[in-house]
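#struct-pred

JT: dropping the chains for the assembly here, can someone run the whole complex?
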Amino acid sequence: MERADFAIEEQEGGGAALALTGPWLIATISDVEPRLASVEQAIARFDLTDVAEIDTVGAWIVARAARRLDAEITGCNDRAERLISEMGEFTTDEAIRPERASVFVRVTEKMGDIVYSGRSGAYGILGFFGALIMSSFSVIRHPHRFAYKALVRQLELVGVSALPIIGLMSFLIGIVIAQQGAVQLSQFGAETLTVNLVGRITLRELGVLMTAIMVAGRSGSAFAAQIGTMKLTEEIDAMRTIGISPMEALVIPRIMAAVFMMPLLGFYASVVAIIGGATISNFAIGIPFLNFLQRIQEVVPITDVWVGLIKAPVFGLIVALAGCYNGMQVAGNSEEVGMRTTMSVVSAIFAVIVIDAFFAVFFTNIGWN
Amino acid sequence: MGAKDPEQDAVLRPDERFRGDYPIVVEGLKTSFGEQVIHDDLDLEVRRGEILGVVGGSGTGKSVLMRAIIGLQPVDAGEVRVFGRSITGAEPDQVLGVRDRWGVLFQGGALFSTLTVGENVEVPIKQFYPELSADLTHEIARYKVRLSGLPEDAVSKYPSELSGGMRKRAGLARALALDPELLFLDEPTAGLDPIGAAAFDNLTRDLKETLGLTVFLITHDLDTLHEICDRVAVLADKKVIAVDTVPNLMKLDHPWIQEYFNGPRGRAALTAQALDELRKHMDMPVAANAVKALDKPPAGKA
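RK: done, full complex below.
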C-alpha cells in the first residue's frame, strides 16, 4: 500500500519547500503525521502537486502544519483547494469529554451523591407508596375503571407461569434440607427429627423466602423493565394525556398480582419442599413417604403455616413495589432501564430479608414458636 | 454498462478511492419477511457523485432496500454490489473492505447513548485506524462535529442532552468520520422544522460537493427532492419503477408518481422552487413581474 510522504527541498531563492507525495488519506497518514508535526525548520511553501488523493484528515494535517510553520500552500488540485479552504480558521480546543475533577473531589462528590440519592430514594418510595394508596381508593370508588384484564394477565404471569420453576426449586431444597439434616441429626440418633426440621423450616421460613427471591428475579425485574421501557417510549405520558392513570392501569394490577400470588406460591413451595423431603427420607433415613407426610401433620404447629402466609403478601408487596417504583424512575436512555432493573431486584431481595428478620423476632415474641 | 467492468470487482486498496461509475449496483433483488415479499426483481444503479433520492409510499421497502445494500437485511435472491464488492454473498459481520468507505445515518441518529458526541465520532476512527494518535483522533472528531453544523460545545455532550435535530447532525458527524465516499441518509429531515430541514438539505449538498460524496437519500420531503436530488428513484410495486430527474419523472404516466409530484404538496414545493429560481433573475423585467404576480395571490383568494 502506498503511504503518504513528504520531502524538504532547499530552494535557490532562500527558504525551503516541502513537497508532499502519495495519497494523503486517513488510511495512509498515521506515520507521516508525527513526522510532519516535528518539522521545526522554516518552510516557505507546501507543494501539493504530487499528492494523488486527499481527504479531510489529510487536508487538516497539511493545513495545521502550514499554519504552524506560516507557510503557503501551492499546487493544489480542485479537491485539495476546496478541502483546505474549508478547514479555514477551524481551531480545536473543546474537550471531547466533560472535564474530570481530581480523585478527592470525585470521591467526596460521589459520597454526597449517595447520601442525597439515599434520602430522595427514601422519600421517593414513600411518596410512591402514598400515591399507590390514593389510587387504590380511587379504584375502590370507581371499580368499573379498574383494569381487570390486566390483573388476570399479571396473575398468570406472576403466579401460574412461575409454578414449574418454583416447584423444581422447592423440591430440590426439600431434598437438600432433609438429606443434610439427616446426616447431622443421626450423629445423636435423632434422624426422626428430620421431619420437624423439613416441615417447620419450609413452612415458616424457606418456602416463602425463596419464593420471594424467585418472584423478585422473575417478576420484579420484569415490572421494572416493562414500565421503564414504556417510560422511555413515552407510552406513560401518552396514557396520562388520554386520562388513564398509569398508577391504576399499570402499577395496581402488578402489585395486586404479586400480593395475591405470593401466599399461594409460598404455600405451594412449602408443600413441594415437604414432598421433596419425604421423597429423599424414604431412601436416606428409612421413613416411608406417607409416614413422613403423616408425621408433618403431628409435629408442625398450625401457627407455622400462619407465619408463612402472613409474611407472603408483605414480601409480594415489597417485590412489586420495588419493581414498579424503579420502572417509573427510568428517564433518559436505555442504559437506565438496565440499571433500574438491577436495582429493583437487589433492593427487593435485601428488603425482603431484612423484613423477614423482623418477622422472625416478632412471631417468636408473641409466642408462635 | 460500467457496472459490468471486470476491473471493478477488484478489491480497493485502502489508499485508493473508488473510480468506477456506479458505487452501488443492485440486480434482481428479492427480499421478504416470511410470506410478505417486499422487493421482487428490483434493479438500481447509483452513479458516482450524485445525490439519489429514494421515494415510495409507506411500506414499499425504502429502508429495507437501504438495509439490503449495507448488508443488514438478508436477501432471498439477486445481487448487491457496493464499490464492486458483493454484499449479498457475505456474512453480516464479515470484513469486506467497504465498511470504512460508507457512512450511514439511521432515522433516529442511532448514537451510542453512553458516549459523548465526540466519542461517538471517534468510534469508527478507532475501529478502523487504531494507529492514529489520540490527539489526531480528537481533532478529526471535533472537525467532523463542526462540519455537520453543530456548535463547538456539543462535542462533549451526551446524546440525551441534545434535541432531535442536533442528534441527527451528530449522527451525520459519525457517518462522516472516515471521509466516506458513500453516504446513506434515512429520512434525514423527518421531524425537523422547515428551517432546520432546509439547513440540513444545504448541508447535504455542500458536503457532497466538498467531500465528493455519493449520497443515497431516503426521504418523504418534497422540498428535499426538488432542491438537492440529482435523480430520484421511485419505489412501487416491489420494484424501482423509474429513476430520473424530478421534471422528467413528472412527465411519466404512473398514477402514484402523478399523485406524489402533482398533488397539492408536490405543486407547492415546485412553486416554491420556481419562485426561488425567478428571484435569482430579478434584473429581468419578465421575472420581476412574474414574482410579483405569484407573491400577490388574486383578490378574493387570499
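JT: nice. Chain B touches chain A through 40 residues (CB under 8 Å). Confidence is low (pLDDT under 50) at residues 1-9 of chain B.
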